[in-house]
Amino acid sequence: MVHRTTNLHLVSDSTGETLNSIARAALSRFEEHHVVHHRWSLVRSRLNLDRVLEGIEHEPGPVLFTLVDKSLRMALEETCGRLGVACLSVLDPVVNLLQHEIGTRAVSKRAAQHVMDADYFRRIDAMHYVLAHDDGQGTAGIANADVVLVGVSRSSKTPTCFYLANRGVKAANIPLVPGAELPPELENPPCPVVGLTIDVSALVDIRRSRLKIIGAGGVRMGETDYVNIEAVKAEILTARRLCASRGWPVIDVTRRSIEETAATVLQQVELWHTKRGNQAEHRPEDPAAAVLGQQN
After folding, report:
1. 168's torsion region: left (phi>0), alpha (psi -120 to 50) or beta?
2. Backbone φ and ψ of 197, nearest 5°
3. Domain spanning 118-295 has what CATH number?
4. Could you give the angle at which helices 258-279 and 287-295 cross, rounded to 10 degrees?
5. CATH class of domain segment(s) 6-113
């Protein structure tokens, strides 16, 4: 099979995040195919578009775009038609479907998903919360958390919390350290607690790489429990037993991306609230539940 290179042009009048996400999801299904991404963002004038058109003509390839301005759209589509290049407005099929179902026309509004509304400020607030409650900091603030992640060192707690914050979820994380006691706030937590675990070999590899990065060469790696496979195995087992004894669900992150881990955490948060809802007829609204409601 001959593998050729494909130029893919992503043209947006905003940041291009939507196009990047769509392209990444679609291209993940095309293995071993080399795609050169040409990202054109903030295309809001004819002068900006002329640069894009020159680029497409110089390196032809399919074009995905999100442009609100009708004149810019028309110019782009005409040039692509002349060059024989495929061109697609990625949001049109979804917008058209929703217009039909909702019964009203969509507003022609550039970068509408990036407006500074209540949802935007909730995400910013959640990001500040994660920064202040990372790696066991500020445990008193757990009272304001939407979820707490626990797990051994290097089990993806921090990156998962930051991903959740981008969804408006206040996530604290607590490391499970051998011999160290849990903070008292977790004796009767006011929010769901989710454990993260990982395969022993994978964790040892991650920790070895970590030691190399921070320059911990003064100690031979085999001599520290941090990367000793038997010690790490016992550490993970102890953490899992702790979670089981507290009734905390555990997610194995070994073969999960951060996005997949975060999605599973949100499922556990929803399940926690559902169980509490069955136990008590009324409960106060919380930000995590609001985020989950928007995702469903």
Report:
1. left
2. -130, 170
3. 3.40.50
4. 110
5. alpha beta
Question: If DSSP codes are grouped into helix, strand and coil, which group holds residue 211?
Answer: helix
Is residue 159 within 8 A of residue 115, CB to CB? The reply is no
The tokens for 150 are 């626990």
Tokens of 111: 């970068």
Residue in the structure block whose two tokens are 């797990």: 151
Half-sphere exposure of 257 (CA within 13 A, CB side): 4
* Strand ranges in 176-243 using DSSP code E only, listed in sequence order: 193-197
pTM of the model: 0.68
| pLDDT tens profile 93-143 | 998 999 988 998 887 765 555 555 677 788 899 999 999 999 999 998 999
- Bridge-partner residues for 148, per DSSP? 172, 193
Q: What are phi and psi of 105, to 5 degrees?
A: -80, 145
- CATH 3.40.50.2300 residue ranges of the chain are 6-113
